[in-house]
Amino acid sequence: MNNVTELVSSKDSDVNCDSGSISILSSGDLDSLRSLMHQLLRDCGWQDDIRKKIHNILDTRGVNQVSEGDVIAEIIPLASKLVPKEVRCELEKRVRDILLLNLDI
User: 24: left (phi > 0), else alpha (psi -120 to 50), else beta?
Assistant: First the structure.
């Protein structure tokens, strides 16, 4: 399950510009956003839904007949699509708030 949420929460927070690379989110901000994302996904039942879908794949095809890579390749696009709009909106709002605070806009 961590692979799915790790892919959703990228650690890349740098922006390239002519003068080099500048950090727009601190590691504390990223940790806070990552924690919030994990909590929101847990609270809405997304993690349990994805876990059930993984078990369904393993039960249907057989544990010994499907590789970890096959499961991941099938689950990642589905998991991303199943993130509730409310979770996406809340995370987007938090990122926007942090950026506005950090950029003094």
Answer: alpha
Phi, psi values for residue 77, rounded to 5°: -60, -40
Please give the model's pTM, rounded to 2 decimal places: 0.69
Q: Which domains does the chain have, with CATH numbers?
A: 27-103 (1.10.246.140)
> In a 10 Å sphere around its CB, with 0-12 CB exposed, 13-18 middle and 19+ buried, how is residue 71 labelled?
middle
The span from the CA of 48 to the CA of 89, in Å, is 21
pLDDT of 35-69, one tens digit each?
999 999 999 999 999 999 999 999 999 999 999 99
DSSP 56-67: HHHHHH-GGGS-
